[in-house]
Write a structure and sequence with these properties.
351 residues; alpha/beta; Rossmann fold; Dihydrodipicolinate Reductase, domain 2; 7-stranded parallel sheet; 7-stranded mixed sheet; 11 helices; globular; binds NADPH dihydro-nicotinamide-adenine-dinucleotide phosphate; binds N-acetyl-L-glutamyl 5-phosphate; oxidoreductase; arginine biosynthesis; cytoplasm; NADP+ binding; N-acetyl-gamma-glutamyl-phosphate reductase
C-alpha cells in the first residue's frame, strides 16, 4: 500500500529534510507541500536540492489543503501546528515536528513557550525507556497504531537518549546532570538571517539560553521521568558553533556510589544493543558530528571518570535527521505497521 502524504512547512529546513527522506521512502508518496510566504512557488525553486519533487508547487498551509491524505507531517513554527491539528481527521496520521504537542505539563508549556496549550501526543523517540526504572519498555510500544505523534526537539532527544539507560538501570543519579552542547545553526530554522550567519556565527562559538532558560529542559526532564528519574535536575547549556548541521552533546551525571565501571557501561550496552539507529561506540572511542550527517543515527561515546565519580556521555547527531525528520519518519513507520527502518539510512556522508 502507498500512503498519500502532505508536508506542511515544506519550504523550511525541517520540511526540506522530511521531503528528502520521504522522496526515497518506498511506501510514501508526497502529494501536497505547503508553505507560508513561499506559497505559490515551485518547491524546487525554494528547495533546489529536491530534484525528484520538481512537479510539486507550494500551496497555503490550511486544513483544507492538508485534508484527504493518509499522513500529514507538520514542520511549522511553534503554535502554528496546534492551530491546525484540531481540524484534521482523527484517522489521519499526524506527525508534528514542532513543540506544540511534546509537553504533558501545561505549566511547563506556559513557562517555556506560552500561548495556547494543545496537550501531549505520543513522543517520537522510539528507543527511549518509558514506564520507570522497573520497566524495560520503550517508547516504540506506545507508537504502534497511534495517529498523533510529537517528534522531539533535537537537543532534547539527544540528551534524553544519552542519559535514559543510566537512569533506567539505576546506575546514575538524576539530581545533578550537566549537559553542554555544540549545535549548528540549522537548528534555528531558515529564519536566521544570512548576514547574522556570516558575520556572527562563522568563526565563533556563541552560548545562548544560558542558565536554565532553554525550552528543551522540561522536555528532557519529562523524558527522564519516563525512564524512572525522580525530580531530575539538569544544567543545560547550548553553544552555537559554525557547522551547518549537527549536535555534539556532552552530558555528565554522578554515578550511584558503589557502582563499578563495568556495570555503568553495561546499562548503555543493554539498552542499545539491538537498536538500529542508536550506536554505542567501543570503549575509548568518541563520536564526531561529521559521521552522522545525513544519517538517522545517534552515536554515543561513554567514559567513566572515576576520580570525579561521574559518567561522561558524548552524543553526536544530525539535528535535521535523527533529531527531527528521521525521527518523524521512523515513528510514522512504527505507527503504520511498516518496518521501523524503512526509508532511513544508518550511513552518513563523508567527508
Ligand atoms: N531545524 C531543526 O533542526 C529542527 C526544527 N524543529 C521544528 O520544526 C519546525 C520547523 O522548523 P524549521 O524547518 O527549522 O524552520 P524554518 O524557519 O526553516 O521553516 C519554517 C516553515 O514554516 C513556515 N511558516 C512560517 N511562518 C508560518 C506561519 N505563520 N504559518 C504557517 N507556516 C509558517 C515557513 O514557510 P515560508 O518559508 O513559506 O514562510 C517554513 O515552511 C519548528 O517547529 C521547529 O522548532 C524540530 C527539531 C529540529
Ligand atoms: C541553533 C538553535 O537555535 N537550535 C534550536 C533547536 C531547535 C529544535 O530542536 O527544535 P524545536 O525548536 O522544535 O524545539 C534551539 O536550540 O532551540
Amino acid at each position: 500500500m502507498t500512503f498519500a502524504v502532505a508536508v506542511a512547512g515544506a519550504s523550511g529546513y525541517a520540511g526540506g529534510e522530511l521531503l528528502r527522506i520521504l522522496s526515497q521512502h518506498p511506501d510514501f508518496e508526497v502529494r501536497t507541500v505547503t508553505a507560508h510566504s513561499n506559497a505559490g512557488q515551485k518547491l524546487v525553486d525554494v528547495q533546489p536540492h529536491l530534484r525528484s519533487l520538481a512537479g510539486l508547487t507550494l500551496v497555503d498551509t490550511t486544513p483544507e489543503n492538508l485534508a484527504g491524505h493518509d499522513v500529514v507531517f507538520l514542520a511549522l513554527p511553534h503554535g502554528k501546528s496546534g492551530e491546525i491539528t484540531a481540524a484534521l481527521d482523527e484517522n489521519t496520521l499526524v506527525v508534528d515536528c514542532g513543540a506544540d504537542h511534546r509537553l504533558e505539563s501545561e505549566s511547563d508549556w506556559a513557562a517555556f513557550y506560552g500561548g495556547d496549550f494543545y496537550g501531549a501526543w505520543s513522543y517520537g523517540v522510539p528507543e527511549l525507556y518509558v514506564g520507570g526504572s522497573e520497566s524495560a519498555l520503550k517508547q516504540r510500544e506506545h507508537l504502534v497504531g497511534t495517529r498523533r505523534i510529537a517528534a522531539p526537539g533535537c537537543n532534547a532527544s539527544t540528551v534524553a537518549l544519552s542519559l535514559a539507560p543510566g537512569i533506567q538501570a539505576g546506575v546514575i543519579e538524576a539530581a545533578d546532570i550537566v549537559s553542554v552542547l555544540a549545535v549548528g545553526p540549522s537548528g534555528a530554522g531558515k529564519a536566521l538571517k544570512t548576514n547574522l550567519l556570516a558575520a556572527e556565527i562563522l568563526g565563533s562559538a556563541s552560548p545562548y539560553a544560558v542558565g536554565g532558560a532553554h525550552r528543551h529542559i522540561p522536555e528532557i526532564q519529562q523524558a527522564l521521568r519516563g525512564a524512572g528519574a525522580v525530580d531530575p535536575t539538569i544544567s543545560f547549556t547550548p553553544v552555537l558553533v559554525p557547522m551547518s548541521r549537527g549536535i555534539l552533546a556532552t552530558s555528565t551525571a554522578r554515578i550511584v556510589p558503589g557502582t563499578d565501571a563495568a556495570s555503568v557501561r553495561a546499562a548503555w550496552e543493554n539498552a542499545y544493543a539491538d537498536e538500529p539507529f542508536v550506536h554505542l561506540l567501543p570503549a575509548g572511542q568518541m563520536p564526531r558530528t561529521a559521521d552522522t550527517v545525513g544519517a538517522n543515527t545517534i552515536l554515543l561515546g561513554l567514559a567513566v571518570d572515576e576520580a570525579a565519580g561521574r559518567v561522561v556521555i558524548v552524543a553526536a547527531i544530525d539535528n535535521l535527521v535523527k533529531g527531527t525528520a528521521g525521527a518523524a519518519v521512523q515513528s510514522a513507520n512504527i505507527a503504520l505497521g511498516l518496518a521501523e527502518t524503512t526509508g532511513l539510512s544508518v550511513n552518513g556522508v563523508a567527508p
